UniProtKB/TrEMBL annotation:
Database matches in InterPro entries: YjbR-like_sf, YjbR/MT2646/Rv2570-like
Pfam families recorded: YjbR
Protein name: Uncharacterized protein conserved in bacteria
Source species, domain of life: Bacteria
Amino acid sequence: MTPEDVRRIALELPGATEKSHFGKPDFRVRDRVFATLPEDGNAVIKLTRDQQEVMCGAETTVFRPVEGGWGKQGWTRVMLQAADEPTLRSALVAAWRNTAPVTLRKAFDLAGG
């Protein structure tokens, strides 16, 4: 997968917009960041600690906690070259759900997302 795939999938999610976070592209829902594209060609997503543990344990070549305090808050690096589209989409949807307000999440669930 590529940063352009991240952009395409992220912007398909309800209410998602692209902005900039410290000069790097990020993706937000209601102005809250759920994913970023750092310069290294990978992605970083906002997971819960439990989600991070499961994903990093199940897909060790795809997911890694971000180093330091951000990683302890659930921020997780997605190694795009090792990811396939269903895995990337699932991870981005999880990050979006963790960030989106309840009303938007419910509307997305009702629409079959």
